[in-house]
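Incident log, entry 3
Record: Glycosyltransferase (224 residues)
Problem: checksum mismatch between cached and fresh output.
Input:
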Amino acid sequence: MGTSNWQQISYCVGVIRDIIPKSILDVGVGFGRWGILSREFLEVWESRNNSKDWKVLIDGIEIFPGAIEDYHYRFYNNIYIADATEFVKKMEQHYDLIILGDVLEHISKEKAEKFLLDCLKKSDYVLLNIPIGKYWKQEEKYGNTHEQHLSFWSNSEFNKFGLIRKKKFRDFLHRKYSVFVLSQKRSNLKNRLSYKEKIVVLLNQYPKTKEKLKRILFYSRTEK
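Fresh output:
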């Protein structure tokens, strides 16, 4: 079952919370990390604790049937067993957010670039996690031939895809990887993220105010 690094998780959850998507397509479901986290922070955090009250459409695509188990369907509305590069190109559904969590490196460079453009056409935002550099050679794993890495990337290659933000990370072996937020509707999210960052800086300067605000937000949620 496919998995990936953990160092970027809180950052990505923050981006998802900034976007507040009503529909998500998770490409390369694997363990189901992004579907599960999206349910928690888009539903439970909005006091929709029971699945019957969930409002966000969360679909997934997985090319390897062996990765999908019964529990996945607890969190995803639909899971499509398909080649995402063909599926996205032909699909009629438009999503608020498409998540590409460690996906592009498993596709040849030319094909991956075309696929990324298709994702941008079929969504408002793309959240992309990807290894950076040539130190990420990988053959098939878990009995899955699709786990092989077929392309290698640099940070600058994503500047042409409607880049809003990027965040650099290192994995536990100190290898580089990055998170990108891409969109052809980039101005709104860019302004929201910038505003949020300013608020965080301001609150960090006044820790007592920060703690007081946390308590207010906590009690306001519990009273809903």
